[in-house]
Write a structure and sequence with these properties.
2 copies of one chain form a homodimer. Chain A has about 140 residues and is of the alpha+beta class. Chain A has a single domain, classed as Ubiquitin-like (UB roll), CATH 3.10.20. Chain A is about 20% helix and about 30% strand. A 4-stranded mixed sheet of chain A has the order 2-1-6-5. In chain A, a hairpin with a 5-residue loop joins strand 1 and strand 2. The interface between A and B is large, with 38 and 38 residues. Strand 7 of chain A pairs antiparallel with strand 5 of chain B, so a sheet runs across the interface.
């Protein structure tokens, strides 16, 4: 297996060493989230075929679904013309949003400039995170 | 018409005063590009219903299509759970990519870590930009 070093050299990471990654569910076509990758998380994603990001708040690698079980299987990884953004075509297991929605984009700005929720929740965030943390503790 | 000041206060712009915006074609579902907005370009987009970004390289507002004619009609503007990313559902006129493709994401990274072009060009970039610049000069 390649070590993916050559491809890393061709991408433009920002001054914090990060590149934005858009995750789009391959079945529904829904854009489910945008997060950031550093070199290490991108290589891990390319090798393991599970989306792995860099958490800016926790300052560490973050495999999507590691707490919730809502993994993202990576089917295709695309780059844009400027090589400074990634588009992941993924199969979203469960929902992408920690608030309980399939997509993090569950709110729109209406013509009055107000925020409106336009999606239904698909899971109870308290249940799923608790359940999975318990099962992790048991391991 | 609202001045959209209240909604601006609820969004999280980064330290450079920018917020990333993903543009998704509403008919095909294709993610066509990711660019950045500052407060002014976001308000202009909300008011005018044509996607307007902030060009980081040119350091000025940039209404997509102003040179190429390939405008983006904004049909819906969504925000994510963290209020730090925008998703624009747009009708893409012509192609979004200055290289001549419908989407800027016309290349994938294959399993060997190589870049592969996976889309066909839909316009000749030399023609379309020249044509439109000429027509602008005539005005």
């Amino acid at each position: 297996m390649t070590d993916f070093i050559e491809i890393i050299k061709q991408l433009k990471f920002n001054k914090d060493g990060l590149i934005p990654a858009v995750a789009q569910d391959i079945d529904s076509g829904e854009v489910v989230m945008v997060a950031y990758m550093n070199e290490e998380s991108l290589i891990k994603t390319l090798k393991g075929k599970k989306a792995c990001y860099y958490s800016r708040s926790r300052q560490k690698l973050w495999t999507k679904g590691e707490n919730s079980g809502n993994f993202q299987e990576v089917k295709q990884l695309l780059i844009d013309c400027d090589a400074d953004t990634i588009l992941l075509k993924i199969k979203q297991h469960g929902g992408a949003c920690h608030e309980g929605y399939f997509s993090c984009f569950f709110r729109k700005i209406n013509d009055k400039g107000e925020i409106e929720i336009i999606r239904e929740k698909i899971f109870d965030k308290n249940k799923i995170y608790k359940q999975n943390l318990l099962s992790l503790k048991r391991k």
